Amino acid sequence: MTSADTVAKAKQSLAARIAARAGGGVMRVFLILIGLFWLMPTVGLLLSSLRDPSEVAVSGWWKVFTDPGQLSFSAYDDLLSNQQITDSLWTTLAITVPATVLVVVLGALAGYAFAWMDFPGRDWWFLVVVGLLVVPVQVALIPVAKLFGEIGIFQTTTGVVLFHTAFGLPFAIFLLRNFFAEIPRELLEAARLDGAGELRLFVRVVMPLGGPAIASLGIFQFLWVWNDMLIALIFADSGNPPITVALQQQVRQFGNNIDILGPGAFISMVIPLAVFFAFQRQFVAGVMAGAVK
Q: Exposure pattern of 63-77 as b/e (b: 16+ CB <10 Å)?
């Protein structure tokens, strides 16, 4: 063995030791620190919402660790007794749940059709769907507003749901079609030989295998619709708006209104976080499956 080979082997062993350590305790500590840093704004918002506005104006949220007596749920009591805020939460749910379900169901059906069904112009239609991905929402605001006004659904919950569904479908179809196309053809042919029709094949075979991708899509769609403000500000009923618009309407002219914005922002953030953590395993499985495929 030459001296060059010895040096190369020493360098390789050093790199292997560094990689092994990085994959162990050091990496875990690093990831924990990243997670704590990522959660810091959320913790700060929660603690600020539990403090009196006069205390928030003169000191930071970290002061609660030296003076925990300043924490109080009075701001949440006042917020939940606000009829406009509670109504806006129900309005947001009435928009987000149907818009998510419609996008997932229609996107799954269309994705299966583009992946495994033969019909005239299939590839061209799929290119049209891909092309719709690059269409910005702002381009369609005025034409869709005029259309909704003519058919009588402008500034209604139905109009907001239809808008979110229409703009969520291209990404849903693109994502699920690519995922479904990776299902082994032999598996589908075996199910057809057993007498399964297209609908039964979709429900019994494709949907269970596509569960991770469908869960990932549902999480993305739910978060997008729940946190939307632009579409809600234009197309929703101004008398009963979603939570994002309702919080904006609660801001007073001369003041930051932290007694309303703090608890309201945290409540509006807790629900999508709960949805994400409830389906995080399916989300990670979908991301990993997409990466492998």
A: ebeeeeebeeeebbe
